[in-house]
Amino acid sequence: MVKNYHVDNVTIEEILGWIKQGKIGLPEMQRPFVWSTAKVRDLIDSLYNGYPIGYIVTWQNPAVGLKNDSSSNNKEIIIDGQQRLTALKAALSGEKVVSQQYITKRIKISFKPSTGEFNTLNSAIEKDPLWINDISDIFKSDFNSYSYVTDNAKKLGMAPEDLGATLQKLLAIRQSEIGDIKLGYNLSIGAVTDIFNRINSKGVSLSSADLAMSRLSADTVHGGNNLRKQIEYFVQLLNDPNLLENIVKFDSDFANTKEFGQIKWIASEVNPIYKPRYADILHLILATSFKRGKLSDMVSLISGRDFEARNYSEEGMKANYEKMQAGATLVFNKSNFQRYLMILRDMGMRNSGKLGLVGHGVFNFGYILFLYLHRITNLSQEKIASYLKRWIIMSALTGRYSGSSETITESDLKMISRDANPINVLDDILDREMNDSFWNGTLPNMLRVQSTQASSWRIFQMSQIYGKDTAWLAKDTSTETVMLEEGNIHHIFPQAYLRKNGFSKGDINQIANYVWVTQPKNLEISDKAPKDYLSDENIIEFMSETNNRENAIPEEIVEYDFHNYSDFLNQRRHLMAKKMREFYENM
Asked: Sorted alphabetically, which InterPro entries does this protein's record hold (predicted)?
């Protein structure tokens, strides 16, 4: 049996030396550190008491023959153990870590020699002469144990020989061994992630996106680390624009690069509907640059893979990075991103929460398609928007990019790009998926669900916002206003009424029984049967055929009680499907 790994026992001192020399990559020293100071303290305490602290997993892939003595660019990366090693560097070497707000800070671990106790430095310890405030002072290269014992034994309340022995035990932490599981360089990306996820006991999974970001951060020759920063800062600023000032202060050198200039605008974007994560940005760059969908391929490309020649090379690495950087420029372009957001808004999306779509696959491919059509075709802006809107609706309703989204993304990209007229491919797929059978049969059946997370419900909401529809039973309050500000999702057949008549929770909470109404109207309706509350002149003052149609309510509702509930659900599902079809065709 071929072994895909071997285990070395190495000392803490050796590993920290390798990191300092650049032999292995530890990107976390420049990225937010998530461990608590108490966890760092416990790590040092374990080493001091001779307890094991686990192992690290390293991997070098592939064995690329690099020119110009740039072998350091192919350094090993740490697959598991990054936070532990970052904690050790912070505590023992005194290096600053970066908070999640991009503020650099010191983690100072204090030590009480008389008891062997560790703690995080605080004001009480600072005033206590029996504590060494910061153990990193002890680990400095110019530290002299003899002088320290002579000068401090009395202050620390210890006999010189006892303090000397305690300091030697503390310094021996550097010689503590840790297992280094070295994965075979010929392992596939899939195998590496599988190995990590099998041996990791903390429930944290490793993804191809994690590997890609680590590989990028280890590259300082082809601009990989700058690309990683672009991706990371873009995502962070998208979610918290207030971080801009901290990032500029924290990473001032990068803040003056053209790469940062391409992304800093995102901090001014108000309520973006589409909020891609790291993995999504990598997908966008991969698809735009290479027409590929699998992030495992991204890791290979970063490593210099030439898929046609089936080898790895320095030339391949350089070419791949150039393509990635060109793709990133398109993805991060302010005009491109904002035009895409405008298309999403035009079709009735209002935010990344309940008034948007669930998941990222549909959004990702929509943006990929937007960038592709702009580059390859001569279509007008209006025509491109039309195709995008219909594609997004189709993809969301059919679940095209749920599940194995990478596979279908790559398949769609290849189909579209290989045809001399990509519009023909789009038309064929849209016609095939959005046929009469889908609208009249498949979609009504898809509406047999309870969750407002369902794409069918979200698309229905979008159709109402797009149509500027009035909330049910309201005079002039739009459904959009009700959704955004004051309204309630109301059960057309009230919950208490159905429950009283023996209906289950699953039957009661069908989305076909939901409608947006104003809060006052919801209180007026109470728990009566539709035929009863719809006979109240105050409630139906603004009820009309148009208002019912806009909300996909059957006209017969005024005659219904619980005996008609099943028929009502069937009617409404078909009316909702009809409204969504009109919405799609109006795109």
From this structure: GmrSD_N
> Does residue 33 sit in helix, strand or coil?
coil
| Contact predicate 349/277, CB 8 Å | no
pLDDT of 205:
65
CA nearest neighbour of 195 among 79, 34, 81, 112: 79
Answer left, alpha or beta for residue 395, where phi above 0 means left and psi between -120 and 50 means alpha. alpha
**Cα–Cα distance, 550 to 576 (Å, whole number):** 9
Distances, alpha carbon 269 to alpha carbons 193, 264, 342, in Å: 35, 10, 12
Those residues of the chain that have pLDDT short of 50 are 28-30, 63-73
pLDDT 10s digits, 195-209: 777 776 555 667 788
Q: Measure the CA–CA gap between 105 and 103, rounded to whole angstroms.
A: 6
Angle CA 124–125–127, to nearest 5: 70
Q: Of 276, 284, 209, 210, whose CA–CA distance to 237 is shortest?
A: 276
Residue 5 vs residues 24, 76, 86, 195: alpha-carbon distances, Å = 17, 14, 24, 10
DSSP 8-state class, residue 98: E
- Give CA angle at 325 (320, 327), nearest 5°: 95
